[in-house]
Amino acid sequence: MGELYLYSGLAIFIYMVALYLVAQKIKDNSIVDIGWGMGFVIIAVISFLVAGEFNLRQWVVLLLVGLWGIRLAVHLYIRSIGRGEDFRYANFRKAWGEKAAVIAFFRVFMLQGAFMLLLAYPIVRVNAANENNEMTFLLLGTLLWIVGFIFQVVGDAQLESFKKNKKHKEEVLDTGLWKYSRHPNYFGEAAMWWGIFVIVLPVELGWTSVFSALFINFLLLKVSGVPFLEKRYKDNKAYQEYKKRTNRFIPWIPKSNGRTEAHAAVSERRQHPIQK
């Protein structure tokens, strides 16, 4: 386990330094968001290869993490084209002044690299464990992951479609998956991490992987995911009506079938869990 984390940590350090150098060259620290998902792919690949065992459970985790990470990176890259540095990072740059480059290295790139290594614990855990032929949790966890992936992909697609066709900024997206949850893409992300936990649960010390699932839920619900967006729309009357009838996170039947005249986006830019 220690050896896998050592190599993974070294790889992530090099990766984040490279991202940082590119960001300084193009003056856009928000590319760290695009690099978020790929960091987990790197950890999955490195720990998989260093372990050298290659059992079915390890292959499944590698495949699922790879699919999630690459999809997220491509999605965020496409969304970033032509938009320049995200306003949050631009504000940080102004606030940090002449020391912006140094502070960004530690508070943006190194900090997010550290979060990657913490959240990737179940990935490293499964690669460090001996072969386990248990199939029930493997199948259940994969099914849960697939449900989460569908929610994230479909939720993002519906949001993108809405943004291209909305008529004014006060509109609220309350159709499709957004009819049942105010944040279906974030719910999907959480469900995927819980799926990974269920897959890893039967291996040696697999139960300790619950930390990652709980941590990602905490980040999404209490730190910079849901709270950021809820605060952003606090003065939007249509959103406040939408909020009254729609579950915040876990999808459920709306409290009312009525709809406001405005249809609206819960989010203008998809964020990964530790965005500031």
UniProtKB/TrEMBL annotation:
PROSITE patterns: S5A_REDUCTASE (PS50244). The chain crosses the membrane at residues 6-22, 34-52, 58-78, 99-124, 136-159, 209-229. InterPro entries: UstE-like. Keywords: Membrane, Transmembrane, Transmembrane helix. The keyword Electron transport does not apply. It holds the Pfam family DUF1295. This is DUF1295 domain-containing protein. It comes from Fictibacillus iocasae.
